[in-house]
Amino acid sequence: MIRRAQTRRGFLLLTVLMMIAVASLILARVANSSMRVATTAMTEEREMRQRWASYSMRRFALSEAPGLLQDVDSSDVPSTLWRDIRLAGEDYRVIVSDESAKLNVLRVAGENDLAQAIESLKRLSTGAIGIRPNGSQAASHRPMTRWDDWFDVDSYTAAQSNRGHVARELATSTQRVTLWGNGRLNVSRCDGETIDLLWNRLFGRPAPSALHQARGQSPPMPWVALSGQLGLRESQIEKATSWIQTDSDCWSVWVFCESDRRVPPTFYVEWGRGGNQTSRGYVY
Amino acid sequence: MGGGDCKLMNHRQHTCRTGMTLFELMLALALSTLLLAGLVGVLSGVSKQAKVSESFEQPAWPSRTADILRNDLLAAESLWRQGETVWMLTDAPPYQGIENPSRRVGYACQAISDDQHALVRIAGTHTALLGLGPTEFVLERIDGNGIAQPLPHQPGPVPASARLLVRGPEDMFLNQDLLIR
């Protein structure tokens, strides 16, 4: 009798303990899934905020690029503006560039040959990242329309173990060369070495002093007037006109998040006017 | 009193300590019922909460897919729809370290078995699995009035924004507008 009564009391305690254990397990599952949901929501909110910040800076920089770059001294790095901005709680570095003031190596490769384009790239690029000797996709006849095709990004990524470093190095390396735009060089904003390199490719001699003097003039001298001062024959003027201009219609912006290196760097470029405007964006 | 009476008394006292009156028994039963009812209530509440919180959990692949598609569209030169596949010519950097010589990239839902479909990204000869379950992939351009329009059947310009729908027979995996340009 005594044993039976003790067993009944134990049964009730055991039942209560089991129910508490089950409740604890379910609560632990709820806590776990709630944490996952909260973490996902926070991550998505942060990514959305960073995308919005990047988009805002891109739109502002590209629409205001001519005004922003107007006062930049073109004697050092041509038509490139570096600025640090704090937005949405993060620190960003924005690099705005006039891509028309850079030599278009894609056009050099298309109209001359790939070797000349690579030679020009070697002369004008200024970073530590290596250049592919023959271009990565030349054999497959694919247009080399992104920097990964020209620079040895894979080796650099392997050494740095971070694609963010690659983007920073690309931004530094490509301050005098471009792949986008109409292929013509804005001689009023580019640097002296780029003009000499292009003129030498076109006519086999250094650029005339009148062309160097035209650099940095504000407002820029119209090409029709400038070409008349260069002592060129009609056929030479025609050739030069297909490669040279004195205004810009191609702008780019790099956006780096300095406070959070997990945010991928982005590069945007926009060119053309009116209905012919085109753009590209790259997330690294 | 003799020794036998004393033993009987001790035995009675012991029996009295272990027994319960009817009132005590009913009170104990009532308290146990209350406790059990409370615990059952807590358990059912917690179980309901678990179902609610699990319903908020989404698989990771839809947001990853939206990111990959956004990157492809940002670097795209043209965009069109051919059958059930959305094609684009893009310069996006290689995806997942795959050296992809092809600029032509497609997104489509394909049947991988009789009752299983998957969303895939086709780049040249390489097909990457993005997610299991979806049976329909729809990408529409958003016009100047904010209205979704179907993509052209020939290569056309990349719109400034697009609407993305990825759905299965019962689930809606993705329904969002992508800001491209």
Question: How are the SSEs placed, and which strands pair?
Answer:
The complex is a heterodimer of chains A (284) and B (181).
Chain A: H1 2-69, E1 80-87, E2 90-98, E3 103-104, H2 105-111, H3 114-124, H4 153-160, H5 163-173, E4 177-178, E5 185-186, H6 192-203, H7 209-213, H8 223-227, H9 234-241, E6 244-245, E7 250-257, E8 266-271, E9 278-283
Parallel strand pairs in A: 3-4, 5-6
Antiparallel strand pairs in A: 1-2, 2-7, 7-8, 8-9
Helix pairs in contact in A: 2-3
Chain B: H1 3-18, H2 22-56, H3 61-74, E1 76-82, E2 85-90, E3 104-113, E4 116-123, E5 126-132, E6 136-142, E7 148-149, E8 161-167, E9 172-179
Antiparallel strand pairs in B: 1-2, 2-3, 3-4, 4-5, 6-7, 6-8, 8-9
Can you walk through the features of this model?
The complex is a heterodimer of chains A (284) and B (181). By secondary structure, chain A is α/β, with parallel strands linked by helices. Chain A has 9 helices and 9 strands. Chain A has helices at 2-69, 105-111, 114-124, 153-160, 163-173, 192-203, 209-213, 223-227, 234-241, and strands at 80-87, 90-98, 103-104, 177-178, 185-186, 244-245, 250-257, 266-271, 278-283. In chain A, the strands form 3 sheets. In chain A, strands 1-2-7-8-9 form a 5-stranded antiparallel sheet, with helices on both faces. In chain A, a hairpin with a 6-residue loop joins strand 8 and strand 9 (278-283). In chain A, helix 2 (105-111) runs antiparallel to helix 3 (114-124). Chain A starts with a helix and ends with a strand. Chain B has 181 residues and is of the alpha+beta class. Chain B contains 3 helices and 9 strands; from the N terminus they run αααβββββββββ. Chain B has helices spanning 3-18, 22-56, 61-74, and strands spanning 76-82, 85-90, 104-113, 116-123, 126-132, 136-142, 148-149, 161-167, 172-179. In chain B, the strands form 2 sheets. Chain B has a 5-stranded antiparallel sheet, covered by helices on one side. The longest helix of chain B is centred in the N-terminal third of the chain and has 35 residues, at 22-56. Chain B is elongated and about 90 Å long. In chain B, 23% of the residues are buried. Classes of the chains: A alpha/beta (284), B alpha+beta (181).
